[in-house]
Specification:
The protein is an alpha+beta fold and 95 residues long. The radius of gyration is 13 Å and the shape is globular. The model has no long low-confidence stretch (mean pLDDT 94). It is built from two helices and four strands, in the order βαββαβ. It has a four-stranded antiparallel sheet with strand order 2-3-1-4, with helices on one face. The chain has one domain (2-87): Ribosomal protein S6/Translation elongation factor EF1B (Alpha-Beta Plaits, 2-Layer Sandwich).
Length: 95
C-alpha cells in the first residue's frame, strides 16, 4: 500500500450537517476501495487566495490514507463529479 495525502475544499454555503456528509462520503469511499484512513483534519472555513467557482471562502479538509493506486484514481474521479467540491489535490507521500 502507498501513503497518500488529500486536501479538498468544500463549498462554504453548506450547513454543518451536509458538510459532514461530504467528508463521510469520501472517508467511506476510501475504506470501500481497500484504503485505510490514518489522519482526518477538518480545518474549517478559511478565506481563499483567489476566487474559485464564485466563492471567496471554503471549508478545508485534510486526509491522509494508505491505499492502492486504484483507490486514489477512484477518489479523484468522484471529486471531479461532486458538485460540493471547489478544489482538490491528491499527493503521494514519500516513504
Amino acid at each position: 500500500m502507498r501513503a497518500y495525502e488529500v486536501l479538498y475544499i468544500i463549498k462554504p454555503d453548506l450547513e454543518e450537517e451536509p458538510t459532514n456528509e461530504v467528508v463521510e462520503k469520501f472517508k467511506t469511499l476510501i475504506e470501500n476501495n481497500g484504503g485505510e484512513i490514518t489522519k482526518l483534519d477538518k480545518w474549517g472555513k478559511r478565506k481563499l487566495a483567489y476566487e474559485i467557482k464564485h466563492s471567496r471562502e471554503g471549508f478545508y479538509v485534510l486526509m491522509e490514507f494508505n491505499g492502492e493506486a486504484g483507490t486514489s484514481s477512484e477518489l479523484d474521479r468522484v471529486f471531479r463529479i461532486t458538485d460540493e467540491i471547489l478544489k482538490h489535490m491528491i499527493m503521494r507521500k514519500e516513504n
